[in-house]
Design brief:
Elements: H1 2-6, H2 21-35
């Protein structure tokens, strides 16, 4: 983030939890407030390692 800003770019981030849709809405509001508009978004959530997850966003992942 600091490198982007040092290079003259307008950058920000919002910490969210993909299992909470209101977090995504909050992030979109932040982007519009700070940057004036939102032209495109890619909401990518993933898990790594030996986690076993259901297809439901409301069911937590477990480790074996």
């Amino acid at each position: 983030m600091r490198d982007l800003r040092n290079d003259g770019h307008n950058a920000s981030y919002v910490v969210t939890d993909a299992s909470h849709p209101e977090d995504t809405a909050r992030a979109a509001r932040h982007l519009v407030e700070v940057h004036g508009r939102l032209e495109a978004a890619f909401n990518n959530a993933g898990v790594g390692g030996d986690r076993h997850c259901s297809t439901s966003w409301t069911t937590p992942c477990t480790t074996p």
